Amino acid sequence: MINIWRLTKLQLLSSFGLNKALHARDVKERRKLLLLSISILIGVGMIAVVSFGYSYAMAMTFESIGRMDLLLAIMMAVTSLIGLFTTIYKASGVLFGFKDYDLVMSLPIKTSHVVASRVLQLYVLNLFFTLMVMVPAGVVYAIKVNPGSFYYLFFLMTLLFIPLVPIIAATIVGALISWISSRFKASRMINILLNFALVIAIMASSFRVDGNEQEFADMSTGLAGMIFKLYPLTSMYIDAVCSYQVGSFVLFIAISLLSFMLFCTVLATKYKAIHTGLMTSHTSSNYQMKSLSIGSPFRALYKKELRRYFSSSLYILNTSIGMILLLAMSISLLFIDADELGQLTNIPQLSTYLNILAPLVVSMFVAISCTTSSSISLEGKNIWILKSSPVPKQTILLSKVAVNLTVTLPILVVSCVLLMISLHTGWMESLLLLVIPVIYACFSAIMGVLVNLKLPKLEWTSEVTVIKQSAAVIVALFIGIISIVIPLGLSLLLSNINGNLILLGIGLIMIVVCNVMYRYIGAKGEQLFQAL
């Protein structure tokens, strides 16, 4: 057990860059740790507040129909579904695709201990999200129902077991996707397409629930039956927590725990064989010599960065899902009128809001599609090659910005044109709908580079820790969201002022910010890059 604990602790500390920061004497490293801690706390607080508000809004509807148990049932199902989704394309990297596999497996440690530490890492990450969703829902349920003392005991104990089954399912699905894609020559493309297909399928099924309050209340019984049928553990969980049934409580824990232990045992037994099967890929043998072409250093760096981007399915999935969702939303609005959508979602004058706030809504998808916040960290130990190359470091950084714009701008332009058609915007609204998101795309790309320069993570063993869990990614995402939320709030508060004037002012401010960041890269980029 001591080996499992040590491996798990080291992996978790390394995932968030805390291990180096905690033992570093450099003041800059301490500041990075402080910045990361503050960002995490703010992010946790925002998630908790949003989760509480969402749970409270749902509780008001369920309270009116006398089915408060549905609140915990739905939130548990949502937690399990999101845990399943996020773990599917994270499991392969954590369990199998880590760079120090040979080093770790050569240690005098049992394979089962290595597997257990890796699975526990997934468990801790999923448990964190479970707490962020379920604890606010549990508090809302306690406020509305005022349950007995057994509720608090059963609720707190079952929290620890909710993520177990989703981890098992996600690992199996993720491994199958990796194995299937590895059987083809274009393995990365197949992997990406399968993951995107799974994401779209999950989201399409979630959109089938109507947002109208009255219809939502009328279908409460059917909704409960659907959730209980698709995921029977939800029924056991509700019986245990809401009805205090000891048998259901024991059965829920036993099924979750025994399934998890059996999964870990089987995985440990076949771990090396599974790893070999997943990491094996086809290579082409028909190599042909071709004439070499000469290009500019920027073009060469751009191509190199583009190849690096498309070489990682996890990188693509984590940074392009926002743009895929934007395109899907734009296409769907061609077939669903905005007024009809407002009636379905019980939001009056939704068409008016979309016409005014559409540029900021589109920019939100752009803000969560930043590739540059992890592009420098992904260089890893090979960063010395770029540092020693006879190329201006500003050119290196701008090549990473160019890749970010390559990912966002084409889809952005197509989506904006589709939105112009579906929303019937005027010429001024159409211009702002296109220009504002483009400005935010430039802002997000340049800002991501600067944040990654300040918060690099060059020592890593799995891409997951850089792409999803590094301090630069968290801080860049937070800055991007704040840069949208503040103008969005101002637009709603200043509704008596012409919305186009507000958006025009926001656009001018963001242009100034982008210009300042660009000049900063030109003045300090060389120094910051060489200091990595």
SSE blueprint and pairings:
Elements: H1 2-15, H2 18-23, H3 27-64, H4 69-95, H5 101-105, H6 111-145, H7 149-159, H8 164-182, H9 187-206, H10 213-218, H11 220-230, H12 232-243, H13 246-269, H14 271-279, H15 297-310, H16 313-332, H17 338-344, H18 350-367, H19 383-388, H20 393-423, H21 427-454, H22 463-467, H23 471-493, H24 499-530
Helix pairs in contact: 1-6, 3-4, 3-6, 3-23, 4-6, 4-8, 4-9, 4-11, 4-12, 6-13, 7-12, 8-9, 8-13, 9-16, 11-12, 12-13, 15-20, 16-18, 16-20, 18-20, 18-21, 18-23, 20-21, 21-23, 21-24
The number of distinct β-strands equals: 0
What value does the average pLDDT take?
Answer: 78
Termini separation comes to: 37 Å
Count of DSSP helices?
Answer: 24
Molecular structure report:
- 79% of the residues lie in helices and 0% in strands.
- It has 532 residues and is mainly alpha-helical.
- Helix 4 packs parallel to helix 11 (220-230) and helix 21 (427-454) packs parallel to helix 24.
- The longest helix has 38 residues, at 27-64.
- It starts with a helix and ends with a helix.
- Mean pLDDT is 78; it is low at 205-219.
Q: How do you describe this structure in short?
A:
It contains 24 helices and no strands. It is an all-alpha fold.
Defining key terms:
single chain, 532 residues, mainly alpha, 24 helices, globular
